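Below: protein 1.
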Amino acid sequence: MAKQTRDAEFTEYAASRSGWLRKVAYLLCGDWHRADDLVQETITKLYMNWARARRIENLDGYARRVLVNTFLGEQRSSWWRRTVRTAAEPDTAAASVDLDVSLDLRRALAALPPRQRATVVLRYYCDLTVDQAAEALGCSSGNVKSQSSRALETLRSRLTTRPAVAERVS
């Protein structure tokens, strides 16, 4: 295949899937700028391996796995530990019906450990089965189940509404 044809094919794929990859990346990291960096790195890795990647039956699954592995790899690197995150609220892509609930969920999701967060995103946002998530994460189905269980338990406890404290009357 000619390089020009290969590049055009890759460009078409990357342009059509970059928005979806960006949403998944945001759910993983909780920061739109960092999500852009993760997508850029993922797209670069896809381009470097495009000759092999284009022959894969489930190209979206492959791209998603590259994205998740890039995110998890970044979490383990010393660069991530040296980076200081601000307490500023994350950018929003679009207004939601209940912004407070959406922000609470994002905060709770961002507080999960990286592998639990990746598991929740793959299972409940990407709508993957346990086996598909296990394949994407490179682990066992049992690991996905336990990570999902722990993550959901943590999310439930963080998102449980607490009764309002009665105000004192002076």
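Below: protein 2.
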Amino acid sequence: MKRLKRNQVQELIESEGRLHEEFTKFFEETYSTGYKNQPQIYELSNDRFLFVFDPKGFLIPGTGYIYSKEDFLRMMRWTQKVRDDYANNRGNSVSHWIYFSKNKAQLVNKVDELINELTIYLDILDEELDYSYKSLDIVSSKAESYGFEKLQADLYDNLVAYVGEVIRRRVKGDWVIREDYPGCEYPTIQVNNGVLMPINVVWQELGRLEQINLRQEAANEIRRFSLRYR
């Protein structure tokens, strides 16, 4: 996506832009320093939106990006998610998973059950979940259609269970509960003295602006592990 220069932004606003007051208000933010960031949102033709960086800002004032309606609404949902996570101290994968998890440390005893539920909720055939990287593409596509808010509420543990099982079989590891301190228990895949984090994979993908890609992030987790413990 190419950022528009200030003159390009102004030309668009003058030719077809209509200030969207509700969305503009949504993106206003006051920092701890007292500085108020005030980007502007304009509605364009053909279901498009123009995001304009605060014209009085310091870095890139008055420049902007054009988004399709779908992408713009996705960015709004992502922004609200980030705000909610920050307000509720869910700033890392462990705290985020603990907040939404229904099973907590018992997840490692329910892996098969959780994976079976995943096939039902996402309408996936049992034989499609063969614990391959390719199967993660299927889960990613179905999860994308399901919606990340519902994924967090309904299927967080199920995704961790399946991603973890894909990782476990690839590295020939074991499910192990790690406890950093009392009340902070979470599932990991352990190989000798090394640890892989399936909750990192799911957390990263639920927090993306882009489409969910569990295959890529699972491969990244295994690659990071290999670099640390090779």
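The chain has nine helices and nine strands.
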